[in-house]
UniProtKB/TrEMBL annotation:
This is Glycosyl transferase family 90-domain-containing protein. The chain crosses the membrane at residues 42-66. SMART domains: CAP10 (SM00672). Keywords: Membrane, Transferase, Transmembrane, Transmembrane helix. InterPro entries: CAP10, O-Glucosyltr/Glycosyltrsf_90. Belongs to the glycosyltransferase 90 family. It comes from Mycena metata. Residues 292-537 form the Glycosyl transferase CAP10 domain. One of its GO terms (molecular function) is transferase activity.
Length: 538
């Protein structure tokens, strides 16, 4: 305070003496001095307080680099009034209500974002809002994005550079030392990749064209994003450890330090030794009632065919993950964009039978462990049911046995083909009332396609995808436990309640066709990149 006081002009802090001529007739012949005082003590206190506040503001501003705050999005230009996407006739539906409740102004969108997340949107949110409005995307319903980034925001409270440092570490690893990991660089909205490879985004030209198209709408976007090009999730870190506590606890310290000596190369075989035996990922088969784990019903958790993860909390963009064991940040994959299917058979003309076809990927086959893989488990179930049901309720089969996943000394491929009648002949999916979406090594990538078929979709999965919070069980599809123990019961319910089954089918089809569009996938990607850039900039 004394230092600030010394900076005040002397006329505010001391008395000033002025020599004035003496008026005629004065009793004294000498000069008369008049003392004019500066500001009063009260005024000086007010001035000092104001200076102290200004000084504090400057210190904070300098600390932020004299740049615009990453949490203060610039308002977008004026837009035309919001018009919800409409491509149907008839009574109002839940999709109409979903669009109607979206924010119709930028100010409202910022307010809702702030309410949900406890912080203001990142820089670039204004440009994203214009993109979302222009493409008629959802504005407010991105809970999965906020959920995926929240651990990094919590750690930023301890170390603002944590996110950036972890990105820089992965940049040094990308390539041969971290197979399946690519660095996506965006400078002023223009994307470029470090490699071109056959992968989850194997149509590299189309994928980069999509990103370049987004860059036109986000011209100020600058970042280095880490892309996982494999189907399997790559960040084996239980985010609940961070969510519970950001103090100097063992869990927080584990997140803050990079302890994995070989990031993205951890590949236990079989994976059950790590996930199940060592307890690193125990997933309930049913979230209700007594806990019974689904690990023995997942080929990924039993014996993954292509595994290579890290145990550090790196930011990585992936197509799916098992929550809470994995902390990948979810984005739409190529299969989510290419989700079309014939839908030419009327509901009443469809067979009341559950149909599934697919190949065998799902893990390394060693001995008889394949009996635990979901797709072989399904065929075993169908074979047993056919012996007790005179009226067939399933038409399921494996179309191809990938022998590259079959160990020559521990896997008898010809015997497996004979046992399961491989290859099975494929039929038109939309000719059946009930279609099953079933995990392979990870999620199938076919869920959205099946929803658009006009058939009722049954879904059995351990994996979370970017659209998971939007599509609700029993409203848009029929959920099935990972071990398939309730599948027959679900099919019998649908056959006995045809009207209700058709209602669920119609709701799922409408949601997939009207909401989860290619434009919405673009908006989702853009929202993720804006969030990423905000954390990397911090």
């Amino acid at each position: 305070m004394n230092a600030l006081y010394s900076l005040l002009p002397s006329r505010w802090t001391s008395s000033a003496y002025t020599r004035v001529p003496q008026a005629s007739g004065s009793r004294s012949n000498g000069a008369r001095f008049s003392r004019s005082r500066g500001a009063s003590p009260w005024a000086r206190t007010v001035i000092l307080a104001a200076l102290f506040g200004a000084f504090t503001f400057l210190v904070v501003l300098v600390g932020r680099g004299w740049s615009s705050d990453a949490e203060e999005p610039l308002p977008p230009p004026p837009l035309e009034p919001w018009i919800a996407p409409v491509n149907r006739t008839g009574p109002r539906t839940a999709v109409d209500d979903l669009f109607d409740r979206q924010s119709t102004t930028f100010e409202r969108a910022v307010a809702r974002y702030t309410l949900k997340n406890g912080r203001r949107p990142p820089q670039g949110y204004g440009a994203w809002y214009v993109l979302a409005r222009t493409r008629r995307c959802l504005i407010d319903d991105y809970d999965q994005i906020h959920h995926d980034f929240e651990p990094f925001h919590q750690l930023a409270q301890k170390d603002k550079k944590y996110f950036r440092k972890m990105v820089e570490r992965v940049k040094k690893l990308a390539g041969p030392t971290a197979p399946g990991i690519q660095v996506l660089t965006v400078e002023k909205g223009v994307p470029s990749g470090t490699e071109e490879r056959s992968s989850l985004y194997n149509d590299n030209d189309a994928w980069m064209a999509m990103l370049k198209n987004l860059g036109v709408s986000l011209p100020d976007l600058n970042l280095n994003a880490i892309i996982n090009h494999r189907e399997e999730p790559r960040v084996s870190f239980d985010v609940r450890l961070v969510a519970r506590d950001t103090s100097a606890s063992a869990s927080a310290q584990k997140a803050m330090k990079a302890n994995d000596p070989t990031p993205f190369l951890t590949a236990p075989r079989p994976t059950s030794e790590y996930f199940t035996d060592a307890g690193h990922c125990l997933v309930p088969n049913d979230p209700n009632g007594f806990v019974r784990y689904a690990n023995n019903a997942s080929s990924f958790l039993l014996s993954s065919a292509s595994v290579g993860f890290t145990t550090d909390l790196y930011p990585v963009l992936s197509g799916s993950k098992i929550y809470p064991c994995f902390a990948d940040i979810l984005v739409p994959s190529k299969s989510d964009y290419a989700s079309t299917v014939p839908s030419d058979v009327a509901w009443e003309d469809k067979k009341p039978v559950l149909y599934w076809r697919g190949d065998s990927p799902g893990g390394w086959i060693s001995g008889d462990n394949y009996h635990g893989f979901p797709r072989f488990r399904l065929l075993d179930l169908a074979r047993n049911i056919s012996q007790t049901h005179a009226d067939p309720i399933m038409d399921v089969g494996i179309t191809n046995l990938d022998e590259s996943f079959c160990h020559s000394t521990e896997c008898y491929s010809d015997g497996i083909k004979t046992e399961y009648n491989i290859p099975a002949k494929e039929q038109r999916e939309d000719a059946y009332k009930y279609l099953l979406d079933l995990d392979g090594n990870t999620s199938s990538g076919r869920f959205l396609k099946l929803l658009k078929s006009g058939s009722l979709v049954f879904k059995s999965t351990l994996f979370t995808e970017y659209f998971t919070p939007w599509l609700r069980p029993f409203e848009h599809y029929i959920p099935v436990l990972p071990d398939l123990s309730d599948l027959v019961e679900r099919i019998e319910w649908a056959r006995a309640n045809d009207d209700e089954a058709r209602r669920i089918q119609a709701a799922g089809k409408e949601f997939a066709e009207r909401v989860i569009t290619a434009e919405q996938d673009d908006c989702y990607w853009a929202a993720v990149l804006v969030e990423w850039a905000g954390l990397q900039r911090t």
